[in-house]
Amino acid sequence: MQGESSHAWGLQHHFDSFDQQREASFLGMWVFLVTEIMFFGGVFTAYIVYRSSQGAAFALGSHELDIGLGAINTAVLIGSSLTMALAVWAAQTGRRKAIVVFLLATIALGGVFLGIKVVEYSAKFEHHLVPGPNFHWDGPEAPGVEMFFNLYFLMTGLHALHMVIGMGILLVVAVLAWRGAFSPENHNLVEGIGLYWHFVDIVWIFLFPLLYLLGRNIQV
Amino acid sequence: MSEHITPVRTYLVIFMALMVLTAITVAVAFMHLGPLNDIVAMGIAVTKACLVILFFMHVRQSSRLTKVVVLAGFLWLLFLIGFTMSDYLTRGMIMLQGPVG
Q1: Residue A1: what pLDDT?
Q2: For A16-129+138-213, CATH number?
Q3: What ipTM was predicted for this assembly?
Q4: Where do the structural domains in chain B lie, given as residue ranges?
């Protein structure tokens, strides 16, 4: 008989073992991430549709983005994925303080990314590149360039929103880790937020070339 | 305890690979390769995403069920993009005769 009283602490009563509980958590998180793939997929498809007909305008638009800041942010986010992976490793090997340190490092790198994003956004406001009544473009292809910046703010904005949510959850998980809520058998929250964070990293891995790199080789 | 624990060295190697690929994709962006520019940029992005999914997200050691779910997610993304573009990219090919209602 597998009664509730015989269950180990941290093992939910509807699971037989920690392995089964972890497998369900991992699979469940991936099912959520698949819905996120489709959510971002719609926006990516919109980008591909407009770029297929407005290639010249999108090349003009990409030249207005700061490729240096974009590359630095890519490195920062990949670094935050490394610290996130190490936080999961620390949880698997029962290093309580290391979990907290790596989670806080991940939050800090996320903060650096968003800080650089603020610098980029404010430059776009100053140069009147934000779509709307204040959008101003002297060169050719003005409607196409405005569409590029519509998609730029939509895609990077949704990505930044995901990062803000992720950093909030990371902070909660860091507090739980500090209180000793995780063990080598039971750390599904750390693994789960890790999957989410890596997914947000993957979205940026595609946003960076699509927005900053494509069209750079074209002389404008 | 059957959970596979990836050694720290593996994470560091994957991190370095991701950084090198980022440097390559930035360098290639300024070269004049014609249509190859887009293909190389997207190829490198897909490679980086696969490294993150397989190693950082532990899908390499996950159950077959999880692998099917992950693959299905990206397969349906390809359907979304593929069928949408099969419409947009072929619209100019259809020559309509007479008045269009």
Answers
A1: 44
A2: 1.20.120.80
A3: 0.92
A4: 8-93
